[in-house]
Amino acid sequence: MQTINEIQQEIIDEFSIYDDWMDKYAVIIEQGNALPPLDEKYKTPENIIVGCQSRVWLQSDYKDGKLWFQAESDAIIVKGLLALVLRVFNGRTPDEIIETDLRFMKEIGLTEHLSPTRSNGLLSVIKQIRFYAIAYKAKEEKH
Prior knowledge:
Layout: H1 4-16, H2 21-34, E1 56-63, E2 66-73, H3 76-89, H4 94-99, H5 104-107, H6 110-113, H7 116-142
Antiparallel strand pairs: 1-2
Helix pairs in contact: 1-3, 2-3, 3-7
């Protein structure tokens, strides 16, 4: 399995071939279209991410010491951003998630090209993923 940094580098490389932001948005949308739809049973108020302009649901599962996430949004760009974040974090241990420096967003230029509300929403998703990692880690340490 690739490391988190290898996956981030892969994403950076995929985006580096495009200079035009319309092309980069097309790649983001493509990623979102490839994201499997979230089962309706997970579209609950508990799974909604607060701080997002569009509706975003994030479901987490903890299996064999690793976290797995599923997510969906009713906004197509946001769905693509979710796909990228999940690509980095799925199948990782809580420690890996907590310690990761998410550099791919800055390196591909996302931080300057997202609207402040979209940027805040994305940060809320990442915060929630880290919160799950901290919670599962604490649970593990109790056992």
